[in-house]
Structure to design on (423 residues):
């Protein structure tokens, strides 16, 4: 009986040994793609069914294992039977987190805005720092860490987060125009400086207008620059600028298409035309965009000493009527016409540089100017012989002019047979 039992035991042991020797160990690798393996797999043998571990990656959700690096052949089950050496690749989906912006205004109200973004997204805070119109951004504060951010910073989202924004009432006030595509400047508050330049844009839209009373409390301004972005200026918009010395504007009057007189800015109507509301301190005027300078545009601007046109093509009649103190006049290249009495009244202008592009100069265009020599431009085609300059001693003109020439200070036609004008 004992011998039989022994035989059976030995036979079973021999059979297990043969079976064990016939099964291959496999080389199985798990590529976590930047994550961490959760759990482990011990020795894997050919044909063995294994419960697969999971992988973890910060900011991502594990979606399963794939047989290829491109993550196109997914293993759909929680277990897998291995038949050969293999590398499995972990797949993930990126997590989304909320970022809540709460806007706190110093006038006692607030509002919130929430966005969803992928983990690790660097949010440009500038895109969310506008707040309500006429409020200025102060700072952002992370409600969890209390870290402060400016509008120029980026905030990297790694979890559900909340930012608290502080906004204060702006000294400068704007009004959205009817087109909803531009703003008008409505007030600059108690501006204490002496130099002011009208902003070209606000909240990503152009500033195109200046409303009446904009400068009501800004009596210290001595220099004002209005850019070419401005399309309209209300009547009397500059009336409070009683100390203004230098003014740069794109046009004179209400609008580029509705140009008028300098007094418009200071509350003077074209019907009164006195010039008495122009500040006595205003000495320098620069006009940057206007092409046609209106008749009487600078009527009775007695304080002006310097005037510059940057884009004029035509100066109409009596533009400078009663401007006795202008000592410097800059006329731009591109000017073509100076009408009758166009520069009349400039009694202090001893030097005049007429642009080479001027084609027509009408009668009395320079009436009363204290010039001794008048140099005419090379493009000149028409010249009014009545010029009324009592101090004039000689004309000059470029040899390139096709219509006139000067001999001994006298202006002739190009053939020299006809006197066009003499001093």
């Amino acid at each position: 009986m004992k011998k039989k039992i022994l035989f059976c035991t030995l036979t079973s042991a021999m059979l297990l040994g043969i079976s064990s020797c016939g099964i291959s160990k496999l080389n199985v690798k798990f590529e976590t793609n930047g994550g961490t393996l959760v759990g482990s797999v011990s020795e894997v043998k050919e044909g063995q069914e294994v419960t697969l571990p999971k992988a973890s990656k910060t900011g991502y959700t594990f979606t399963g294992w794939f047989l290829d690096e491109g993550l196109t052949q997914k293993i759909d089950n929680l277990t897998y039977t291995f038949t050969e050496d293999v590398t499995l690749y972990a797949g993930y989906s990126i997590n989304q987190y909320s970022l809540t912006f709460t806007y706190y205004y110093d006038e006692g109200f607030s509002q919130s805005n929430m966005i969803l973004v992928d983990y690790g997204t660097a949010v440009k805070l500038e895109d969310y720092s506008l707040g309500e119109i006429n409020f200025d951004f102060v700072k952002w504060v992370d409600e969890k860490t209390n870290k402060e951010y400016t509008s120029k910073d980026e905030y990297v989202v790694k979890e559900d987060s909340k930012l608290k924004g502080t906004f204060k009432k702006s000294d400068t006030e704007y009004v959205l125009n009817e087109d909803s595509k531009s703003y008008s400047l409505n007030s600059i508050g108690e501006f204490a400086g002496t130099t002011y330049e009208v902003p070209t844009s606000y909240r990503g839209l152009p500033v195109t207008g200046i409303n009446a009373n904009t400068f009501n409390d800004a009596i210290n301004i001595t220099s004002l620059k209005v850019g070419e972005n401005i399309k309209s200026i209300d009547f009397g918009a500059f009336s409070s600028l009683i100390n203004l010395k230098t003014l740069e504007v794109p046009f004179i009057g209400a609008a580029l298409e509705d140009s008028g007189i300098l007094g418009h800015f200071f509350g003077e109507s074209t019907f009164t035309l006195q010039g008495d509301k122009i500040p006595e301190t205003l000495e320098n005027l620069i006009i940057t965009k206007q092409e046609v300078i209106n008749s009487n545009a600078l009527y009775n601007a007695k304080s002006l000493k310097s005037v510059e046109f940057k884009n004029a093509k035509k100066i109409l009649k009596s533009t400078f009527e009663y401007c006795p103190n202008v000592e410097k006049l800059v006329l731009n290249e591109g000017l073509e016409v100076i009408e009758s009495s166009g520069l009349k009244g400039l009694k202090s202008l001893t030097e005049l540089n007429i642009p080479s592009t001027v084609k027509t100069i009408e009668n009395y265009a320079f009436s009363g100017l204290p010039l001794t020599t008048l140099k005419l431009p090379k493009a000149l085609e028409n010249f009014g012989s009545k010029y009324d300059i009592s101090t004039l001693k000689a004309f000059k003109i470029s040899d390139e002019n096709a219509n006139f020439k000067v001999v001994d200070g006298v202006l002739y036609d190009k053939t020299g047979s006809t006197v066009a004008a003499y001093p």
